[in-house]
Design brief:
The complex is a heterodimer of chains A (182) and B (441).
Chain A (H helix, E strand, L loop, with lengths): L1 H21 L14 E2 L2 H4 L17 E2 L1 H11 L1 H4 L34 H10 L10 H14 L9 E2 L14 E3 L6
Antiparallel strand pairs in A: 2-3
Helix pairs in contact in A: 3-6, 5-6
Chain B lengths: L1 H12 L3 E3 L3 E2 L3 H4 L1 H9 L42 E2 L9 E4 L17 E3 L12 E6 L5 E4 H4 L5 E8 L17 H5 L2 E10 H8 L7 E6 L6 E5 H6 L2 E6 L2 E2 L9 E3 L12 E7 L6 H6 L2 E2 L5 E3 L7 E6 L10 E10 L5 E7 L7 E2 L1 E2 L9 E9 L4 E9 L8 H8 L21 E4 L5 E4 L2
Parallel strand pairs in B: 6-15
Antiparallel strand pairs in B: 1-2, 3-4, 4-5, 6-7, 8-9, 9-12, 10-11, 10-15, 12-13, 12-14, 16-17, 18-19, 19-23, 20-21, 20-24, 22-23, 24-25, 25-26
The chains are: A mainly alpha (182), B alpha+beta (441).
Chain lengths: 182, 441
C-alpha cells in the first residue's frame, strides 16, 4: 500500500542521500524540498492535547464532582445554565432517553466516550476563554457533569486511570458508514 | 422588430421536445446557439411583445468614471448578492454564512461568497507566527512555517467543499418554504492551490502502524478531526490559495486541510497540527456532532463522503418567472467520488426526464454546471434534477433517503440540522403565476 511505499521510499531516499554525499556528489536529489524543521516532543508538548478513547494523553491530576460544582457555577453556568440544565448553550444534563432526528443528542444518551468530555472541555471551553482551566479543574468539571448524569458516583475520583473506564450507555450503537475508506 | 419576434417565437415552437411539460432537447443549445441565446436574453424579466424604444446614452457614458481601486469589489448594484449570516452578533455558538447559489453561475464560487462555518468565530491569525507541526507515528516530527510551505511544489485543483449538514432542512417532514441558499448554501467550489499532504508525510516518514491523521486547527475550539491515512495519501492538500489568492479568513487563513469530496468539517481550517495515530481521536465533532442518528436509534459515524448530488439554482424560490416562454433550467451537480456523468431534468415532477447539457469543464469532486432548455407554457410545473457520477452512483429520491435515514416528526427551524449527508432530489414547483416553491414530489 502507499504508506508502506512511502516508508520504503523515504528509507531508500535516506540511503541514496548517504551514498550521494559519500561520493561528494553535487547532483540534485529528486526528493522533497525538506524545509520542515525537526521538532522535539518537548517543544510540541504545549500543543499536544489530544485525549484518545483509551485514555492516552490524559495528564496527571484528578477531580471530583464536589470540586467541580463551584467551578461549573463560576465558569460554565452563564451559558449552560445552573446545574447544567441549559441556557443559551446546550443543557448538559437531562434530555430525552434517546436522540432522534428531532434532536436531543446528550452526553448520557449519545456520547460514546467519556474521554471526549475531558478533551473538549480542555481544548475549547469555556467558550470565551478556552484552555484557561487547569488540568485539575478540567477533571473536576468532567466529574461534575458525569455525576449529574449518574454516569459516575458523587464522590468518584476522575483521573487518567478512571476516566477511560467510565461506561457510556450508547457506546455500542455506532456504525462506521464506509469502513472500506479507513 | 415584431417581425423578428414572430420569427423567434416560431423557432422556439419548433425546438425538439425531449420530455414532458416543455423540456427541450439539449442539443438545441448547440445547433441553434445564437437563436437560443437571443431568446434567453428575452426570457427572465423581459417585456415580450413590447416595442423597442430609441437607444439613449446613460450618464456614465458622458462622464469620466471612478478611480480604479487597488482591490476591486462587486458593483454597487450587486449588493444583494450576499451570503446569509446566522450569527451576526457573534453570540457564543457556531456561526454560518451560506452561498447564494440562486444568484451565481458557472462552477466557481467567488471567494467572498464561499460558505463558511466557524465554531469559535473567525480567528485573526498572523501568518508569520502560524506553524504546522507533523508528529505522532512518524520517523521525524517536523514543523513548517508558511514561508517554507510556500516553497514546496504546488498543485492546483478545482473542487467543492460541502458541509456534512448541507441540505439538512430536507430531513423536515414537511417542505420548508426557503430558497436554495437556505437549503443548499453550505456547499461551494473553488480552485485550491497548495502542497499535497503526501509530499509532507513522505518527508516526515510514516510509521507502518499509522492508520489515521488527526488534523487540528489553531482556532479557539482547536477543532480536530480524524482523517484516514488512506485519504491523506490519496489526494489531501494543505491549501494555501483559493481562486488564486491566499485563502480567506473564513476558509482557514493561512492554511487549511482540503480533502476533496469529504465532509466539510474534516477539511480542518487554520491547520496547525497533524498527528499520525493508530486509532481515531473520537473528537467532539466526529463522535457527537457529525454523526447521524438513524430511525432505529443507532447512528452513523465516519460518513466521510459527500455523495452524488445536484440541485437546480435557477429557476428557484424567489426567482419568479414573469412570462411564459423560453427559460434555461440550470444548477450544479457534484460527487465526492469522481466526475459527474449525467444529469437528468424533469419539469413534470419526475414523470418524464430529459438529459441536461453538462458545461465543460467536468472535473472530479467539483461542481459541474448543467443546463436544460425549457419552454414554460405558463402552467404548473415541478422542476427536478437528478445526477449520476462516473462510478455509477445515482442521486437518490428524497423518499429513498427518508426511508433509510428518517425524517423529523414536525418541521424544524431551517437553521437546524436534524441529520446530515442529505443528497436527495430537490423539487421546485412553479405555479401559473410563475412563483417557485419548495415541494416534496
Amino acid at each position: 500500500m502507499s504508506m508502506r511505499n512511502a516508508w520504503l521510499n523515504s528509507l531508500l531516499g535516506t540511503l541514496a542521500l548517504a551514498l550521494a554525499s559519500s561520493l561528494a556528489s553535487t547532483v540534485a536529489f529528486a526528493d522533497g524540498p525538506k524545509l520542515g524543521k525537526p521538532i522535539t516532543a518537548q517543544e510540541i508538548a504545549p500543543w499536544d492535547i489530544h485525549i484518545m478513547p483509551d485514555g492516552s494523553g490524559l495528564p496527571a491530576g484528578s477531580g471530583t464532582s464536589t470540586q467541580g460544582a463551584p467551578i461549573f457555577a463560576q465558569k460554565c453556568a452563564a451559558c449552560h445554565g445552573e446545574g447544567a440544565k441549559g441556557g443559551q448553550s446546550a443543557a448538559l444534563v437531562g434530555g430525552p432517553p434517546r436522540a432522534s432526528l428531532d434532536g436531543g443528542k446528550t452526553i448520557p444518551n449519545y456520547w460514546p466516550h467519556a474521554t471526549t468530555l475531558f478533551d473538549f472541555i480542555r481544548r475549547a471551553m469555556p467558550y470565551q476563554a478556552p484552555k484557561s482551566l487547569t488540568d485539575n479543574e478540567v477533571y473536576a468539571v468532567t466529574a461534575y457533569i458525569l455525576a449529574l448524569n449518574k454516569l459516575i458516583g458523587e464522590t468518584d475520583v476522575v483521573d487518567a486511570q478512571s476516566l477511560p473506564k467510565v461506561k457510556m450507555p450508547n457506546r455500542e450503537n455506532f456504525i462506521i458508514r464506509f469502513p472500506d475508506r479507513i | 422588430m415584431s417581425h423578428s419576434k414572430h420569427r423567434q417565437n416560431r423557432q422556439l415552437e419548433s425546438l425538439p421536445p425531449v420530455a414532458g411539460n416543455g423540456l427541450i432537447d439539449r442539443r438545441a443549445l448547440l445547433g441553434r446557439g445564437v437563436m437560443v441565446a437571443s431568446a434567453a436574453a428575452a426570457g427572465v424579466g423581459s417585456t415580450v411583445g413590447a416595442a423597442a424604444e430609441p437607444m439613449v446614452d446613460g450618464p456614465w457614458s458622458n462622464e469620466v468614471g471612478a478611480v480604479i481601486p487597488a482591490y476591486q469589489v462587486a458593483s454597487r448594484f450587486e449588493k444583494h448578492v450576499m451570503r446569509t449570516v446566522d450569527n451576526p452578533d457573534n453570540v457564543p455558538r457556531n456561526s454560518r454564512a451560506r452561498t447564494p447559489h440562486q444568484l451565481l453561475q458557472g462552477i466557481i464560487t467567488p471567494n467572498g461568497l464561499h460558505f463558511t462555518i466557524c465554531h469559535g468565530g473567525v480567528p485573526d491569525i498572523d501568518p508569520d507566527k502560524h506553524r504546522l507541526v507533523i508528529h505522532g507515528l512518524v520517523r521525524q516530527p517536523l514543523v513548517f512555517t508558511l514561508d517554507a510551505l510556500a516553497r514546496y511544489p504546488m498543485v492546483s485543483r478545482i473542487g467543492f467543499v460541502e458541509c456534512g449538514g448541507n441540505s439538512a432542512p430536507l430531513f423536515s417532514n414537511e417542505p420548508l418554504q426557503q430558497n436554495v441558499q437556505a437549503l443548499h448554501g453550505l456547499a461551494s467550489c473553488s480552485e485550491w492551490t497548495g502542497v499535497l499532504l503526501s509530499t509532507l508525510l513522505e518527508e516526515s516518514g510514516i510509521d507502518p502502524k499509522a492508520k489515521w491523521v488527526i488534523a487540528e486547527g489553531a482556532d479557539s475550539p482547536r477543532l480536530h478531526r480524524s482523517v484516514p491515512l488512506k485519504k491523506a495519501m490519496e489526494d489531501a492538500m494543505v491549501a494555501i490559495y483559493q481562486n488564486g489568492e491566499r485563502i480567506q479568513p473564513g476558509q482557514g487563513y493561512p492554511m487549511r486541510l482540503w480533502l476533496p469530496g469529504y465532509e466539510g468539517n474534516m477539511n480542518v481550517k487554520y491547520l496547525r497540527r497533524l498527528t499520525l495515530t493508530e486509532a481515531p481521536a473520537m473528537s467532539y465533532y466526529e463522535a457527537r456532532t457529525y454523526s447521524q442518528v438513524l430511525p432505529d436509534g443507532k447512528a452513523y459515524q465516519f460518513y466521510f463522503l459527500q455523495e452524488v448530488k445536484s440541485f437546480i439554482s435557477s429557476p428557484s424560490p424567489g426567482l419568479t418567472l414573469k412570462d411564459p416562454g423560453y427559460y434555461e433550467i440550470s444548477g450544479v451537480a457534484y460527487s465526492g467520488t469522481g466526475r459527474i456523468a449525467r444529469v437528468m431534468v424533469s419539469a413534470d415532477g419526475g414523470k418524464s426526464w430529459g438529459e441536461a447539457a453538462l458545461q465543460d469543464p467536468i472535473l472530479p469532486k467539483a461542481f459541474t454546471r448543467f443546463r436544460m432548455p425549457w419552454r414554460w407554457n405558463g402552467g404548473p410545473a415541478v422542476l427536478q434534477s437528478r445526477a449520476w457520477d462516473e462510478g455509477g452512483n445515482v442521486q437518490p429520491t428524497r423518499a429513498e433517503i427518508v426511508a433509510h435515514r428518517g425524517q423529523t416528526s414536525k418541521p424544524p427551524s431551517v437553521l437546524a440540522f436534524p441529520s446530515q449527508h442529505f443528497n436527495g432530489i430537490t423539487s421546485w414547483s412553479v405555479d401559473n403565476k410563475g412563483e417557485v416553491k419548495h415541494v416534496y414530489a
